[in-house]
Amino acid sequence: MKNLRDILPGKVSTDAEELFCYGFDASSMEGPACAVVRPENSDDVSKASAFAFEHNISLIPRGAGTGMTSGAVPVKESVILSLESMNRIVEIDEKNLIAVVEPGVVNSQFQKALEQRGLFYPPDPASMDFCTLGGNVAENAGGPRAIKYGVTKDYVLGLEVILPDGKALITGVKTHKGVVGYDITKLMVGSEGTLATITKIFFKILPLPEEIMTLLCIFNDLDMAAEAVTKITGSKIIPRTLEFMDRETILAVESYKSIGLPKDAAALLLIETDGQPNSVSKDTEKIGAICTSLGAKVSVADDVFSRKRLWDARKAISPALYRISPSKINEDIVVPRSKIPEMLGLLRNIGQKFNVKIVNFGHAGDGNIHVNIMTDKNNVEEYQRAESAVKDIFEATLKLGGTISGEHGIGLTKAKYLSMELSPLSISLMKDIKKVFDPRGIMNPGKIFV
After folding, report:
1. Model-level pTM?
2. Residue 105 in 3-state DSSP?
3. Which fold would CATH assign to domain 325-409?
4. Which end of the chain is less congested by CB atoms within 10 angstroms, N or C?
5. For the segment 80-128, what is each residue's pLDDT rounded down to a tens digit?
6. Which CATH number is 211-319's, of 3.30.70.100, 3.40.50.1820, 3.30.70.3450, 3.40.50.300?
């Protein structure tokens, strides 16, 4: 990597410890890296990309490594392009409700900067205190507020990207409308670093809602909690969030970080409404009545400290689950909201079939269930049963008209299941698109497609 060091002095590392640290992500998979490059601007990214293109070296764009499907894990000797130093909020245009940021900006830092100005960026993945906006765009991240506000792609107006050969490309617009030519911006969003490297993002932003109210609805019956989800969405109310936790999740959270959740509950819903004060009060009252009619105990957290306590519980789920077992297989299926009760029943059956514990939580308001198969990688027989359950889970999801990933992407871990959902023609067209952008196949190889 001597030539690369000459091109980018002080920004290239081949230290063994750093190569190890940058060789894995939150999926716990790992792979070999030959160098880590920390660009400080678009020109640095362009130089690194041109070098990789010329020498036919794989290039892996990387944010904070919080992805769950091994999207940032190299499959062969690769240059890791870590964008953590490109972390400037370039512009917040309050008049036109547009922001320009670099990819290394942490999601929550962006949120805080906007809130200080009375503005709002809705996408809020559970890892928002750590994950970067570039990674959010690459994975088309969602979050609890997606039920009302949509996911990352709904806020990306345009991008600056560096193509594999080092050329810079501006896609999209800095206006709230624009239909000139093919929508390359939307193609980039969710492409998992397989087409180009994101160096700037042009976001649409919103005014901050005036009022927020949070409900905690405790159920003694799992099926009634699932039924509440369909009744709420069927009543023409669109809450800000509609989160679901089953009994095992509640117990794990309380064991990990005592929040005060009832350990004898079968399930809970964490629901928020936002907007104008009058409409928020009415919607909250209607939602409370629906849940109460289904046997729930309903309480309202109407101050910032009470809300924070409940959301601390929600954000603690992923680490808390390791109190149940040392390993887990985490899938993020989506089914039509009306099918949630049926899907939860099928998940119970699959857990029994393979003799594995399945723990469920997630964004029930948009049908996105995080299915966690609890296991131990060191127990080979048990882990094989857990892996075998994944295919059954995906088959059940697709039969109900769902999809095998709502926000985590495909990466390495789901690539072998892609053909369960997409036709051979669809996959062939996607591969052809990748060849147009990346003719040498150096951009994040092995991801999405087997």
Report:
1. 0.95
2. coil
3. Alpha-Beta Plaits (3.30.70)
4. C
5. 999 999 999 999 999 999 999 999 999 999 999 999 999 999 999 999 9
6. 3.30.70.3450
